[in-house]
Amino acid sequence: MIKSHTAGSSSGEAEAAVHGLDTDKLNEMNDTARQYGMRSVLIMKDGRKVWEWHEQGADRIGSVYSCTKSVLSALIGIALDEGRIRSVDDRAVEYLNLPNSFDGHPVTIKQLLTMTPGYDWPDFDKPYKEMKKADDWVQYVLNRPLVHNPGEVFTYNSGGSHLLSVVLTRATGRSTLAYAREKLFGPLGIRRLRWGGQHGIQEGGAGLYLTAEDLAKLGILYVNQGVWEGSRLLSAGWINESTRPHSKGLVNYRPSIYGNYGYHWWVSAEQPEEVPAYYFAFGYGGQYMAVVPEYNTVVVLRKNLAGRNKAILSRRILHEYIFSSLTGKTCNIIEG
Length: 336
Hints:
Blueprint: H1 10-18, H2 23-35, E1 38-45, E2 48-54, E3 62-63, H3 68-81, H4 109-113, H5 128-133, H6 137-142, H7 158-172, H8 176-188, E4 194-195, E5 197-198, E6 201-202, E7 208-210, H9 212-223, E8 227-228, E9 231-232, H10 236-242, E10 260-261, E11 266-267, E12 279-283, E13 287-292, E14 297-303, H11 311-327
Antiparallel strand pairs: 1-2, 1-14, 3-7, 4-7, 5-6, 8-9, 10-11, 11-12, 12-13, 13-14
Helix pairs in contact: 2-11, 3-7, 3-8
């Protein structure tokens, strides 16, 4: 059971202190969060809510943007655990029930998960807006030419994420949302949500709306290696495989708001040694759900939109305030 405390109150400060966080640093963070345009800051440690700050005073349901991808990754893992999807090495078209003209399509589920399918999909998801305007998102993605050998080149691609939602829907015989309610959201106690899509298929790359605390529950599940309140929801093997680097991703992008890439999870890299190892879900403009296994900690940051690169402000909050409070060390970030 997640225990709730309100950030800034004496009970919240006491809880944070009991769990070893520097509350002076966190109080300082609250002032900076407002200046940076943050909407929510939530810290969970040892399964308990130890710090919470919300611009509007309460945790409200809102878009998690591309953090949706990491939720979808968990659902793909559950379907694999159940044998509904045979292997990540299966070709995606084996599950899509498409015309015979697509039978030879070579892209695998793993290549979609690692964003290496080889489609002509310019950096930073430029075709995404065109896809959203299309009458059939699936056909739009599959009609993009292959300009790289599948598995070789990372290109951030929300269209490929949508194909994964279709794979999941066909493999389970239920919508992605219905499957999520039964296998993930229901057991985690997540009930306040929305998830949009097209033609009965939930959007794979975005479209999910959750509270900050409910998004954090996925992180707690991962910290606990797939076990929630004594019940296994997801295999530890999938968690470990999906949160390790499978490509360099956007590790060289500056400012440093991304990292290496796993199975629809980002993995932090090339940071000062004082910064603890972590992996994270990331949404446009600075939405983070970071998992720090060494410290049994999950952090959710939500930010008002102000452009892609303003995500560095969320990253500063995460490193310079939260990680510094957690570790007792100065945890700066690489920006230039």
